[in-house]
Amino acid sequence: MSSNFYFIKWKNVLNSLEALLRTDLNYQKKAHDKQLCEAVLRLSSVLARYSALYNEASECLHNNLQVQKKKYMQEVIKTVENRQTISLMRRRAYSRRIWERELSGTLKSAPYTLREKSANLIQIVLRYEQIKFFHELPTDKEGGLASIIKEELPSPAQWLEEYNRYMHEKASNKTKTALQIKWEKKKEKQELKTKKKEKSIQNKIEAELKRKMMKNPSLHPGFRYPPSRTTELILKALEHYRKDWDYLDELDTLDVKERFIERFNIEDSWMKAKMEVLVNVQEDMRNEYKKLKAALIEDYTRNNEKIPEAIKKVSKPKFKLRKFAKVSNNNTSELIENLVNRGILIEYPKTKLEDFIGDHNFAGEDLRYTFQQALPCNGDTRSMWWRVCRDVSQGHQKILLVGPNGCGKTKLVYALAKLNNAVLFVLDPMVLKNELTAIHLDNLLDSIKTCALNVQPSAIYIKHLQYIFCKKVPTEEDLGISPKIIKRHIVKKLLRTTNRTHKITIIGGCTEPWTVRSKELLQAFPKALLLPNTCYSVILELLQDWVMRNHEIPNDFDVHSLAHLLESYNFGYLQETLQSYLTPKKTLE
User: Residue 330 and residue 472: Cα distance in Å, rounded?
Assistant: First the structure.
């Protein structure tokens, strides 16, 4: 299309945007709707109109042939985009930092007139006649030279007030002990916390009162939209564009649509020259400040007076993430090979979640309705474990499996590792008890943690936690090492050092929960899953599957009576017994 089409379209977009801004400001200042759904529809229509205008403005910018107008169009489009999605304050701060870093170069020293002006600026802005002291030049973090030009520094009266307060606080702290200063700071924090709590209570009371008023149609105050900071920025961008381009757009000449305008080229050249000179001006100002500061020190020394101290600003400590030492690939492969040889990193069998057989507790809702206890069955446990398997890819988690031997804990762990294609580490203190020492345990857990971090997603299964978090401490002959040492190393090396972003799942197994310190165990494993006892339906399904797989057994075999008799046996024992029952000799008989 021709440039004239997009020229006219851009003018229409500006007029529509100004009309939409007036409507938006009206909605922000006054309440128009009594129903929340109506307010949401009204606000959605405004945001949809912003999106439509943004698309039209972007199209005009893409087909614009006037190079000098591009900067103004981008400014308008940027503010409209911020109104919809972006936090403007963060973007402006980031752009500001980038702009300041770009102000670099090696040029000749500034002319004498500029140096004289910079010295006069220091005299006017920085020298405080009332206090006979020079304000320190702001650092780059405090704004640098830009804060001086914008006159953002405190006035002499403000600086003197802050200085007197600082000296009074410093003198009062000299007579106090470190403990008193600590308690005063703690008291101030407590007062701020109390005020914040009171304000929160007041806001809740006001919200409750407003909620009650909304029930009465005659007292309904109406819904208001939250005020937007970006609306003013759009107005400023439009005002900037109107100021420089309105009278040119009215001319409707070819230069305005496709070619260049000489005045804008001259202004851009001026701006670039000012940016280049600004670096030398800042350097000259700092040199002049050093000379004036040295002269001020000489004056105070000659008069035998004490020069005012600079106010020390306490900087907030930066939070530093703990950095783990990088391990080379060769070392990692050696550690993995060592763990495989020791039987800690295992190759688990192909296991599906459906292998943990059992039905849901279908009568649970009826029992809860009559205020009776409804225990979960294997189907409910399988559903809960499916959620755990799904969350493995989301990040680090710790879960505890509680149940007797042979109830299916290992089967669930294998299913989790198989579903997520994870590497499985199995740590059993009862197997390693003959070779465990404090130094050996420390190195072993370091190896497990390093390998788990390098082969994510991974799962670490710790068996027999009842011997580690026990109430009655077993003898060292039973474990080969003190359980306190094992607990301290496991909690320190595995449970605390892993980050939430790491795709590592730590699973604990416990068979005798009544013998452990439950508070410490639940602190280490916040989530716990209690595996149910083997019920009639599980044994019946196991027996029916066994009969179907072995054709030697008659089809009229009474599995129901046998399921009732075997109800007190656990699932693992029954499965192993049934598999070993039909030997070749018994099959021939």
Answer: 43
Task: Provide the β-strand partners of residue 470.
Answer: 516
SS (H, E, C) 321-339: CCCCCCCCHHHHHHHHHHH
* Cα–Cα distance for residue pair 530/518, rounded to 1 Å: 14
Give yes or no for a contact between 516 and 471, defined as CB atoms under 8 angstroms apart: yes
Residue 529, SS3?
A: strand
User: What is the distance between the alpha carbons of residues 148 and 532, in angstroms, rounded to a whole number?
Assistant: 73
Nearest of 411, 401, 509, 503 to residue 459 by alpha carbon: 503
CB 450 within 8 A of CB 345: no
Question: Tell me, what's the pLDDT at 198?
Answer: 92
At 81 the pLDDT is 65
- Opening angle at CA 102, ends 99 and 107, nearest 5: 135
Which whole-number Å values give the CA distances from 54 to 14, 37, 45, 59, 64, in the listed order?
11, 26, 14, 9, 15
Token pair for 415: 């299913």
Q: How many CB atoms are located within 10 Å of the residue 74 CB?
A: 15
Q: Rounded distance, CA 168 to CA 244, Å? A: 53
Alpha helices in 3-106, H assignment, sequence order: 3-29, 36-62, 70-84, 88-102
CA–CA gap between residue 487 and residue 289 (Å, rounded): 62
Distance, in Å, from the CA atom of 48 to the CA atom of 474, rounded to the nearest integer, reads 69
Exposed / middle / buried, residue 179 (Cβ in 10 Å: 0-12, 13-18, 19+): exposed
459 sits in which H/E element = strand 458-462
- Give the type of residue at 318: K
User: Between residues 163 and 142, which one has the greater pLDDT?
Assistant: 163
Q: Please give the pLDDT value at position 96.
A: 63
- Residues 41 and 149: their CA atoms lie apart, in Å, by 46
Count how many Cα atoms sit within 13 Å of the Cα of residue 31 in the half-sphere of its side chain.
9
Which CATH fold would you assign to the domain 329-530?
Rossmann fold (3.40.50)
In the chain, domain spans: 3-105+224-257, 112-203, 329-530, 536-588
Residue 353 neighbours by CB under 8 Å, 6+ apart: 382, 385, 386, 389, 412, 415, 419
Each residue of 2-17: pLDDT tens digit? 667 777 777 888 888 8
Looking up tokens 């004239």 gives 4
Q: Report the percent of the chain where pLDDT is more than 70.
A: 71
In the chain the first and final C-alpha atoms are separated, in Å, by: 94
Supply the pTM of this predicted model.
Answer: 0.46
Packed helices 483-490 and 438-454: angle between N→C axes, nearest 10 degrees: 30
> How does pLDDT run across 23-75, given as a tens digit for each residue?
777 776 666 666 666 666 666 677 777 777 777 877 777 777 666 677 777 77
Burial class of 441 by CB neighbour count within 10 A (0 to 12, 13 to 18, 19+): buried
